[in-house]
Batch of 3 targets.
Target 1
Amino acid sequence: MKFLFTSIIFTFLLSLTSAFSQIVELEQGKIKGSTENTIHSFKGIPYAAPPIGPLRWHAPQAIARHDGQFDASNFGPLCLQPVRPDRPAPDMSEDCLTLNVWTPAIDSGKRPVMLFIHGGGFRTGSGNIPGEVFAKKGAVVVSIKYRLGALGFFAHDALVDLPANPGLLDAIHALKWVKSNIASFGGDPDNVTIFGYSAGGMMVNLLASNDKAEGLFGRAIAQSGYAAWPLLRSNKAPNTAPLNAINAENHARNLIAKLTSEPQTSELLYQLDGTELANTVTTFHVPIVDGNSIEEEPGIRFIRGEQLDIAYMSGGNSFDGSSMGGLGPTGPSEYEQELGNDLTEARALYKDDTQSDWLMRMWGDKRYVLSARLLADNMKNKQSNAWLYYTDFVEEEEKSTSPGTSHGKGSAFLFRVTDKDSTAMKALANEMQQYYFNFASTGNPNGVGLPEWPTYNGKSDNWMVFGDDREAKSGVITEKLDFAEKLYLKRVAPALDQ
């Protein structure tokens, strides 16, 4: 009877805890969050002034203090982006610079901070994630929204002295907000890890190679980021460009020409409808080398040893090329033409793939997996260590139709929260999550009960392979990546030789 009474009291107290609202005092004022299953969440917190009207395309500005309590119980609107016609239109706004925080406790705990940057080809996506996955492990989790498409990455010669990458500067501004405010949520401002997937992984690489981000984080995880991929180049970029560089100002004018034939003055640009601007981008969008907000392509910066000295983890998927075509700048036939004289050698390397799969797989290896190896290998220029992973897991019911781990799966594995997954899927997700949490906590992914993950160096070429089992392997798709790197170095040779 005593045990039953105690159990009833405990359940009652737990239900009360779940119902309580949490109030946190920040520099910008009081915010009220919510609690569910012992995890406190604060959603839709503005971290910068609304980038609207005369602030469109400007670097993010400080947020004004608000009166009363800000209700942080719901996600903020998505940044403006194209919407599929077969789906309901989400809540979107040009006023979208918000972030979300999940924490196990509001105290002075100094927990590791994990800041997630979403993907979506720099044209879509949001930070609306199940952040409680890592908060339950003991981290303070932050996710951000940043300006997308032509509103976030845009260099037009009518916009004098404005940054070409306000979307990237949004992320830096959010990191500064974290530095100033995260202690109020029980986080350690001196122990921040940034991690992101696809375009978010590319943002991680851009930040890891950006002097403006120095001191704002100490660890970085780039999942299927594309640091070796060509970026647009502004007229303000360094003079010696990689081969076949595309001019950002011409690209911007072509985007605006989709909307109007009027003279493209600054007055006209500010009058354009934000939703229509977002809809001008119909494929992968890429950031812009302008010599300031982005000094140079991340791969080039890493090769030169100009990246930040931080613990670095990166990797990709065995069929990341599944993203080719649908939103990509090229399809298989165009990519085959692009390979030119290298086509025969490329096909021989991918002889085990079908005619319909091999170009997609190579495109994924060259865009995503090569980027991981290239940057990890060039951490040899720094004191900090690097770790590489390769995801090659396909669920049993998909093995007859999927040639490997598709592009979107890596992030899905990381935030897996459903009870419907197979035992193998749950085991993979749990181990990936623990490796990531360990890395954020200590700067090393290894820990009790996990297979040993060796640091990366070019001689051993050690990767952690996330497959049916987790094991360290040397020389993951080495010949294929060597071939891709040869093509990459040929493209960037002029910039490296200066």
Target 2
Amino acid sequence: MENPEVKYGLPEKVIFCKRCVMSNQRPASAVEFKHNKDSKKTTLHIDEDGICDACRVAERKEQIDWKQREEELLKLLDKYRNKDGAYDCIVPGSGGKDSVYAAHLLKYKYGMHPLTVTWPPMLYTDYGYRNFRNWIEVGGFDNITFKPNGRAMKLLTRLSIENLLHPFQTFILGQKNIAPKIAVKYKVPLIFYGEHEAEYGNPIADTTTSLRDKSYYTMHNLDDIYLGGISIPELIEHYNLSLSDVMAFLPVDYRELEAFPVEVRYLGYYIKWTPQEAYYYAVEHTNFQARPFRSQGTYSKYNSIDDKIDDLHYYTTFMKFGIGRATYDASQEIRNKHITREEGVSLVKRFDGEFPDRYFHEVMDYLEMKPEQFFKLCDRFRSPHLWKKENGEWKLRHAVWYEAIT
């Protein structure tokens, strides 16, 4: 029997971390500009002992001298703190627990003057919008919200689903690129994110990231920039978009960064970052509200809840990589010792791949996409080395709760 086809440059052999429930099929970068079907993507590394990089990072966190790290933070903040009350750092976010925690600590504990910057969700949930308003009004922050061209956002999101099965690509690009643009425009030299991307196994430097790094915001040639799997020239020529329509989604011009350098820092490098603690902090200080019901596809209520398309995004990761929302949540909670691996396995078995029907038809109507088309795309984007059809139903070949199905 021939080996099943492997898509997306994923490892042919599926390996699950022995400590959490994540597999080596998880892409280590959330989004790529260059769309090349033959390119190889970097995936989560699992070492010879069967432990993934993200779990190794969690292990090393227990050995960190957090008092010394905070002293490093204080020196950094003293370097950038403005004495005249002008903005001295930017905190991107939409009022979720992490952006609330980061902005509130920087302002009220460390005496900084953060400007919060928001690329809003495509379709706000009611409770997500209330959390955003509470972040600004109860928390007490200045905020710039950039609402992108609605027609372009809708079109690019639909193309991202059709060509990449990635409902979140357009949002991620906008969210990632808006902060440095605002930083350059308002001459704010420092951007703070919350958790470090290494927490999830992503290969990024420990303390800082240059915005001129290729993996971040450098833009040299529009022909090499793809949105929704379509090159910029093709979008302009065939999809009735102008360059102006798509500029909001593109990186800051590297020439502007040469004229005004901007640093990216991760607050989670300097203070021990625990998502659950960030949630409790946000509840206490800005009246943050969890969802009034469990998020479909997982067991939690407070992660990624502001956009109605969130749940659909995690469903598509299950289709492409065999990794659903419960796998992400359980792995993080195992690393933080809030649940055992056995409990995580049970939660993944119960909730991973649950279809998110609560907002599905509203999202499809907004994107002007027929549900039947979406389901066909899901089947087309399944990688054969992960999925097989038995008695007319799709089943995973490999799952964390059983040995490979042969």
Target 3
Amino acid sequence: MRHSYDFVVIGGGSAGYNAARVASALGRRVAVIDGARRLGGLCILRGCMPSKTLIYSAEVLHLARSGRDFGLRIPVAAADMRAMHARKRRIISEFADDRVKQLESGDFDLIRGRARFVDPHTVKLGDGRRIKAAHFLVSTGSRVGVPPLPGLAATPFWTSDDVLELDFKPRSIVVLGGGIVACELAQFLSRIGTRVCIVQRRPRLLREHSKEAAGVVRQAFVDEGIEVITGTQVSAIRPLGHGVSVTFRHQGKTLRRKADHLLNALGREPDTSGLSLPAAGVRTEPSGRILTNRWQQTSAPHIYAAGDCCGPHEIVHLAIQQGELAARHSAGVRGLKPLDDSMLLSVVFTDPQLGRIGWRESDLLERGAEFAAASHPFGDHGKSILMEANYGYVKVLADPRGGRILGAEIVGKDAGELIHCFSTPLAMRATVHDMLRAPWYHPTLSEIVTYPLEELAERTRPADRGR
């Protein structure tokens, strides 16, 4: 093992591994330093993959319990938590083993240990070894945050990690938070048979998405029996003999909810506190989030950051793009372009799912940009009706002159898949007229996007492209 490198990555998750892979392919001397007990990163071990494995199992259970709606007799449908847990562990182990093989491939050095900076070009490991590099990438991810709510720190609570390891069905739980993790896991728990109450400080769920889309998800939750209380101010959290108590203000009243368990889903924070970043001249926000420019450079230009530790979005494909951009920029690759904010893609794996890409309606209004919008409900679409999937809508935003696609929002059945109908058109700066030249099979779910496209096509003129 060398002790001096061209490019050293701290953290071997999705951003770090892909950055190392790209840097190595560019001929750089590369090392990845990772001191986690188990290699793989948050997405594989404690995030995307285990949560979606369990969420899909709960969706199958929900459909089985809804058999009467489809003319079926299914006498008994229940969660076997030990079997679900075993299946999840088997699947995740396969993903993790593949990542370990990639990290141990020999394309770069893998150094096991925790690193902290001692100067701008040197990190020290726990065993005293010192590693020098011309360039560094910090990709240490995030950890569960514990905000200063009265009594929270003194009360036993679960995090998303704990929920993903459950091998039994909790009787009841209070979920603190209304973001993506809170909503996805709250519905999962409800569907396996847990009584769930969501207590959210903000006036609505899923604040990064539109009020209308979040409202559809909320209504689906309520219809499934989840208690959703938004616009709250928590005044006390206390442990009970066999559970917890959460007291809060809501609409001028003091309310209290008791449950066997408490889930802290109030967000994550950058995992950067042990890196001694000031020694390297790297500036952070008070939360520990690393400040970066459009090339992922920190305040120390030879040190880059990617993924959850710098944000601004905790999304895996963005973390990968950030890491790869940093690797190429550090190697002096010409012709690079920074990541395009107008191509932001996000999915929430509730049921109904929520997907959006490109500019939001609120973004365009804030910028004073002109746009045309059209939408169509799932409840008026043949395939979704026969699937008993009537929640939600598709909305498309376009330039009012030539009809160029500016963004799209889908809340409804398989929205996470359907939103990708707009990925390539948006990247190619296509118009609603371009999209309507493509064939759309009937009856399919994806066919629903043609209805707002047709409405927008009638209201815009196709650009002259020499055809």
